[in-house]
Amino acid sequence: MASVYHINKGINKPIEFKGLKAQYIAYLAGGLVLLLILFASMYIIGINLFICLFIIVAAGTALFMIVYYLNNKYGQYGLLKKAAKRYIPHSIKFRSRKIFIHLKK
Fold it and tell me: Helix/strand/coil (H, E, C) string of the chain?
């Protein structure tokens, strides 16, 4: 009998959810968890409910706007490349020629 195999068309493609790609999904999820904790702590402290809601809605809107902006500007790996670029040295200084002399060996 012949076997039937289903082909996954999403191989080698980034995970995408509502236009967000790759790590931006995690950034948004982490931000939403922080907003939930912030709301709970403000409510427990005793801040007025409407003030809590206003702050959380404003911060949530800002979070969504920033994450979608970063997603559109940098894409799947661009933000990681930008963060890694900070660790590239501007120049390399050698105090002796030993490194270059021993390269032939």
Answer: CCCCCCCCCCCCCCCEECCEECHHHHHHHHHHHHHHHHHHHHHHHCCCHHHHHHHHHHHHHHHHHHHHHHHHHHCCCHHHHHHHHCCCCCCCCCCCCHHHHHHHC
User: Given a cut of 60, is residue 65 above it in pLDDT?
Assistant: yes
Exposure string of 52-87, with b = 16+ CB inside 10 Å and e = fewer, is beeebeeeeeebeeebeebbeebeeeebeeeeeeee
Show me where the domains of the chain are located: 19-88
Least confident of 3-17, 28-42, 80-94: 3-17
- pLDDT score recorded for residue 12: 73
Distances (CA, A) of 53 to 31, 39, 60: 16, 8, 10
